[in-house]
Every structure is written in structure tokens, then in C-alpha cells.
Amino acid sequence: MTVSPNRPLPGATAKGAHLAQGFMRDRSEPSTMRALLIEGGGVRSAFAAGVLDALTDEVEPFDIVAGTSAGALLGAAFLAGQHGRSARVLRDPACRAAFGRIGDFLRGGDLVDLDLLYYAAEALEPLDAAALCAHPSRFFVTLTDVESGAGCLIEPEPDELVDALIATSALPIAVREPRRLRGRRWLDGGIALPIPVQQSIDLGATHIVIVRTRQAGYRNSGRSGRLAAPWFDRHQPALAEALRNRGDVYNAMLDLIEAPPAGISIEQILPRRAPACSRTGGTDVDVVRDHLMGMDAGRTWLTEQRLRGR
């Protein structure tokens, strides 16, 4: 199957439409462009949070930082220079209360309350949006368009940041109502654009570092997407199709990582064991264990870079 490329959004700002409207970098340019891509995974992202904490203040700024779902939240804190914030959020009882809300879900609410998560995180430690927006790296998030089922990579304006971060984390079914942004309705970017590898290459990235939350050798069976798809068949058929194709899209992305085009370098920072946390939860000890595993993986990667003279 063909993985749909990013395309222009109706009513998108010039900044947000860069990828679709001629912002592709001239591949003949000899300069190096570095991209950091962060996979999502809900609470499982404690590993990625540890990796980013290890990298904070230890690496030259990346030209591009892009995240999917929880990966976008981690990327925002990373660029804001808030070392440890993501782990503190994942461990905070008020933030953890946003997950697994079975009673709310049975009464017609959300299984994951993203508004509660956002405001609890802000009460714990506000995201330094000013530092994020002032950072020299360009920050992108992935989203899935409910109407078309297409995955899109957007660069949010400062006044769109909160909506974009919540939209990319809106898991289908777990969150009943899609989020609105730029006149469109959006759900979790991981449905149709799990990691924006090709889109980063199209932006001009020549050296890509991907922080994964899955172990080496993982392949997506597509089972969860196929199970979720019938929920949307009647009213959002394109989204249902995207869910059915999710496994194929994810695995095609892995194929690209394993065999990138000539002139493109891709490195992965992966967990050495399966994370203790799942997408929707884990104990405080699980979060700490996964975060420490991530810090160890990040430090190992930094050591390897120094030995290579990078």
C-alpha cells in the first residue's frame, strides 16, 4: 500500500503549510540538517522522556524536532529546556488520574481526559511556551485528519500550541470528540503518521535521530487498528480505513528507517527491554524504571557520538 504524503490543509497558515507548498529543501544542497523524531506511546513514553533528559544541554540544537502523540509533549518540554518535567508529569497522581477513567467512559465521557491531563500538568509545572517558541529548532507535531484519514505534519503557531499538543494525543475511542484546529478535526497523529521520517527528509533532514518506545524488531500487527475501525465506519469512513491500514503504514515507516535513501543517515535510540509501562498506565515504579532505562540509553548514544567525533 502507499503511505499518503503530507498535503495542504484548507485555510492553513503559510507556516503550517510549508511542507505541502514548496518548502521541500533542494536535495543538491551539501549542508547537513539534523532532525530529532520522538515516537508516542502514552505512559510507555517514560522511556523517551529519560532519553531526552539525558540529551538536554548535551547536544547541539537539532534543526527539526517532531513528535507524535505523547512524543510531541516530550519534545515540547525538551525544547523548553525543562529537564525532568515529563517524568514528573507521568508520576504525578493528579496527572495519572487522567488515564483509565472507566466510569467516565461508561457514562459517555472519555477514557483518557486530555483536558484534565493538560491542566494538572500545568498546575504541577507549567510548560515554558515562551522558551519553546524562542528555541532555534523548528517544532512539528503529527496529526490525523478525521475527514480524510490522512496524516499531516504541522508547525503550530504560538497560539495553536496547546490545541496541537492535545490533538496529537487524542486516541480514537479513548477520546470521543476530535479536536479542532485550523478549521479541521484531528485525532492522534500515530494513526496515520506514527513517525514523520519521510516528511523530515522532504523538509531537508540528512541526519535523523529517532527516539523509539518499541524495541528493535517490533512490527505492528495492525490488530488494534482493525478492532477500532468499525467504531468509525458509519460516520468517518476515511478514518476507519486509516485505522485498518495503521499496521501497514507503521511497518512501511520501519522499512524506510532500515533502508533510507542515499545520503540520509538514520539512527535509533531504542529500549533494551520491553518498557514496564503500557500505553495507558503503569505503577510509579514502572515509570521510574522506564525513565532510568531511557536516561541510560541516551547517555550511551551520547558516548557513541563522542567516540565518533560528532
Task: Give structural notes.
Helix 1 (46-55) packs parallel to helix 2 and helix 1 packs parallel to helix 13. With 310 residues, the protein is an alpha/beta fold. It has helices spanning 46-55, 70-79, 85-91, 93-96, 102-106, 114-124, 129-134, 161-167, 197-203, 223-228, 237-244, 246-258, 284-307; strands at 34-38, 64-67, 138-145, 151-154, 179-181, 184-188, 207-211, 265-269. It has 13 helices and eight strands. Strands 1, 2, 3, 4, 5, 6, 7 and 8 form an eight-stranded mixed beta sheet that branches. Mean pLDDT is 89; it is low at 1-28. Helices cover 38% and strands 13% of the residues.
Mean pLDDT: 89
Low-confidence stretches: 1-28
* Separation of the first and last Cα atoms: 37 Å
* Approximate helicity band: 25-40%
Number of helices: 13
Spell the H/E element sequence: EHEHHHHHHEEHEEHEHHHEH
The percent range for strand residues is 5-15%
Structural class, from secondary structure content?
alpha/beta
Quaternary state of this entry equals single chain
- The total count of strands amounts to 8
Biggest beta sheet attributes = 8 strands, mixed
Shape: globular
Whole-number radius of gyration?
18 Å
